[in-house]
Amino acid sequence: MPTERSEFQVGPTKRTYYTAEQKSAEFIFEEDVLQSVIVQTVADDEHGAYAAPDALVEGLSGTAARDEVLARFGTPVKSTAASDRFSVDGVFVRFGYVDDRVADVTLMRSAPGQ
Length: 114
Description:
By secondary structure, this protein is mainly beta.
């Protein structure tokens, strides 16, 4: 999968982004350690959709309804109008929604603000 690489300094930390072709997935490294993976399950004006969104989360389609996500994962550790974040086996899983359906899935080693 062809990728585009970009690098930024965020304070004292070097952050590197690898963005997949059509921006369907993004891998974020801090100081050469993978921190986050963002996968688009639905195409939008800026991103293509990942080729196999239904294979991302066992038991959920790539465009599952928000209530299906909540039934699968329980109470989120953080919730906004457009996303839910869950703690799962020592990592964080965030679901972003458009019209109450999953549009992106993010895996994070640590969560902002926690």
